[in-house]
Design goal:
The structure holds 2 protein chains of 2 kinds.
Chain A (H helix, E strand, L loop, with lengths): L14 H14 L3 H8 L4 H4 L3 H13 L38 H14 L7 E5 L3 H16 L1 H4 L10 H17 L9 E8 L3 H5 L2 H4 L19 H10 L2 H7 L12 E9 L2 E9 L10 E2 L2 E2 L5 H13 L3 E6 L7 E15 L8 H14 L3 E9 L5 H9 L2 E9 L5 H9 L1 E8 L12 E15 L2 E8 L5 H6 L5 E2 L2 H5 L3 E11 L11
Chain B lengths: L9 H4 L6 H5 E6 L8 E6 L4 E5 L4 H4 L4 E5 L22 E2 L4 E7 L4 E5 L4 E6 L2 H4 L3 H4 L8 E4 L5 H7 L3 H7 L5
Classes of the chains: A alpha+beta, B alpha+beta.
């Protein structure tokens, strides 16, 4: 793009002053792009051209000056650090120089290609060394000294940021070499971290001038660096130009070292997979179960599902959650229990409905103990549906029970006639070690009992969410009342439990092929 | 591995049924100097313990008629016990010999029942106040005395100091 066609912004109103400003910035050692920035240019397209063109534009603008720059502006005491080969710009520390050149961009491209992600667009997040903030301020202060009327009301926010200029320039170039567009709303991020080894030394002076801002907060978790964007920006804001001149070098020194690219890191936003699972085994926990580092159940529903998902989506970590859960020794029958898995940083994300269906088939073929249905990718917002079901919805169960005495048919029918039995359930002893002691009111909406033999019967129930079924049957030392023993008049026990249904309309049901 | 069952089959379940107590709890005993200090501790695998009368305790062994159970003992009123949160804050702390309750019988005999192990008092069985007969009718289920939680750090040590079923049978051979 030919920048000469565009009108270059300048804080100064006339070409003469503009030319002087350009000379001044050149003598400081600023690179062409930084000169554009400090002139006031904020138009992305102006930066998207080769450095050669920018230099040309600048020399054109200097020529416009009617006065001789050599004689007029030449102050014997002025230092001249005009950019020579390999010299690093004191304002951007090289980020808008070498790090916009082809070799570095190729390095990024190679890194991203090797990371092997699937993406249709990308965005970049840059981490710029904190001392750039100080250096930019120093340049501004210098400009205010030399061109008071032009720069006295100019602040940092009027100057295009290093980050933005880099993205405006590199974005399209990377997009071309990667073959996908740069998009601010992309969920694939290429993070580039720049580090300047002398940052600490340059910021150290703050400790003398603004010690309160940098007081280490001992109890803050994940404290991070002593000098970060936030507190350095605050300290600078509170410092007057005068103070800055005494504390720092104005104009800023020419850096002896280039800032380095510490890391390039790709991440993709999480993907959410939902479905329903059935559990047909009485020794499988829902999620991996460890006590003191020892595995307590051979496997889990979560692992049975995620082991397969991982192969395809190639994610770094997963978070499994379901709409409630059942004990290890309880089966999950019927249409299954809704669940969602959050896949973190997935490398592969494009799967058609047919492809997802095949993954589901694979999970189901791998073991008959866990079966999955309605497997589908869902948007992040949809995951709220899960917890909704847990608290409000009704659950139905089938319990295989024992009674000490024989229960007559009339007794069984009596049970069937009971509606909305309200229970007072104290926290079951089996969870008392990790739950607070409390009494919960829960309702058994309907029941029906079917005789199996003299001492056994099948009990079907429909209850409020959060009802402890086992405790309702055996009474938990009399701490759940009423219970089956009090309702039948004889000691009862539960031998097996199955969950028949979890009534939640989500996720959407998918017809079998 | 258990056979794949999609619905309730009868054979698997109708094996010898273990009672709830035996399924989830281990019976441990604090053998007192005399039988009236015998405690049966039902220890759940999650560390929670249920304090009950040992079968050798005269109330159980002699099937006494209990007229009242009082939790207002010399150290504190156990009914005042209030716990909150997962950490069971505010619980009364018991020592092995701490008094839990006073049992009064029709024949005039009174018994002070001890905790049996050092632990936090989680819950007292208030049902005993209005149905003291539970002590004799269902001493190891609805007639439990209290629910306690030993300290995590002390748990193994405390459990080791309690006697096993065999040791109890040896100490109290008259009880079947």
């Amino acid at each position: 793009m030919d920048a000469t066609m565009e009108q270059i912004e300048s804080f100064a109103n006339d070409d003469n002053t503009t030319a002087d400003i350009i000379s001044c910035l050149e003598k400081c050692g600023c690179c062409p792009r930084c000169i554009f920035r400090f002139l006031g240019e904020k138009n992305a397209s102006s930066f998207k051209c080769y450095p050669g063109s920018i230099t040309e534009v600048l020399s054109d603008m200097k020529k416009k000056s009617s006065t001789q720059t050599e004689t007029e502006a030449s102050d014997k005491t002025d230092i001249d650090f005009s950019l020579s080969d390999g010299q690093t710009c004191p304002a951007c520390l090289g980020i808008l120089q070498q790090y916009l050149d082809k070799p570095f961009l190729t390095k990024i491209r190679d890194f991203v290609t090797e990371a092997d992600y699937e993406y249709k667009s990308f965005l970049c997040s840059l981490t710029v060394p904190v001392c750039v903030l100080i250096r930019e301020r120093a340049v501004l202060v210098y400009l205010r000294d030399k061109f008071k009327s032009v720069y006295e009301s100019v602040t940092e926010s009027d100057i295009a940021r290093v980050k933005d200029v880099w993205k405006w320039t590199a974005g399209p170039l990377l997009g071309d070499s990667l073959g996908v567009p740069f998009d601010q709303k992309s969920n694939f991020d290429i993070a580039i971290m720049f580090n300047y080894p002398r940052t600490f030394k340059e910021c150290e002076i703050f400790l003398d001038y603004q010690p309160e801002v940098f007081k280490r907060r001992k109890f803050k978790r994940g404290q991070g660096e002593l000098f970060n964007r936030v507190n350095v920006a605050k300290a600078l804001k509170d410092m007057s130009d005068k103070e800055l001149r005494t504390a720092f070098q104005v104009p800023p020194t020419i850096p002896k070292v280039l800032c380095e690219c510490e890391a390039i890191h790709c991440t993709r936003e999480p993907l959410y997979i939902a479905g329903r699972y059935n559990k047909y085994n009485r020794s499988l926990s829902q999620t991996p179960w460890f006590v003191d580092g020892v595995r307590k159940s051979e496997s889990s529903v979560e692992e049975r599902i995620c082991d397969h998902l991982k192969k395809y989506f190639k994610y770094s970590d997963s978070k499994f959650s379901a709409s409630g859960r059942e004990d290890v020794d309880v089966l999950m029958l019927g249409t299954g229990r809704p669940f969602v898995v959050e896949l973190l940083d997935p490398h592969k994300v494009t799967f058609s409905k047919a492809a997802i269906y095949n993954i589901q088939k694979e999970i189901n073929a791998a073991s008959s103990e866990v079966q999955v249905r309605d497997l589908q990718i869902v948007p992040k917002e949809a995951t709220n549906n899960l917890k909704e079901g847990e608290m409000e919805k009704t659950k139905t169960y089938s319990a295989f029970c024992w009674s000490a005495e024989v229960l007559a048919q009339e007794k069984l029918e009596e049970l069937g006639a009971m509606k909305n039995v309200v229970l007072q359930q104290k926290t079951p002893i089996r969870v008392l070690h990790r739950r607070p002691l409390a009494t919960r009111e829960r309702t058994v909406y309907t029941m029906s009992a079917e005789r199996v033999d003299d001492h056994h019967f099948k009990l079907n129930l429909e209850t409020q969410a959060g009802t402890y079924i086992k405790e309702f049957v055996h009474g938990d030392f009399g701490r759940t009342t009423p219970n089956m023993s009090t309702l039948t008049g004889t000691e009862c026990d539960i031998l097996q439990l199955d969950v028949l249904s979890v009534l939640l309309d989500w996720p959407e049901s998918i017809e079998d092929r | 591995m258990a056979a794949m069952e999609h619905s309730m089959g009868k054979e698997e379940k109708v094996k010898e049924r273990l009672s709830v107590t035996d399924r989830y709890y281990k019976r441990k005993y604090k053998i007192g100097k005399t039988e009236d200090q015998d405690v049966c501790v039902l220890a759940h695998s999650n560390r929670v313990c249920i304090i009950t009368l040992a079968p050798s305790h005269p109330v159980v062994a002699k099937k006494k008629k209990v007229t009242s159970v009082s939790f207002d003992v010399s150290e504190a009123n156990r009914l005042d016990n209030k716990v909150s949160g997962k950490g069971k804050k505010g619980a009364q702390w018991l020592k092995t010999a701490s008094e839990l309750c006073k049992i009064e019988c029709e024949d005039g005999e009174n018994y002070i029942f001890p905790a049996g192990l050092p632990a936090q008092l989680i819950e007292i069985n208030e049902n005993l106040v209005h149905s003291p007969c539970l002590l004799t009718e269902k001493p190891h289920t609805e007639g439990y005395i209290a629910i306690v939680l030993p300290k995590l750090k002390e748990y193994d040590y405390v459990m080791k100091r309690l006697s096993t079923e065999e040791a109890f049978k040896q100490a109290r051979p008259d009880i079947t």
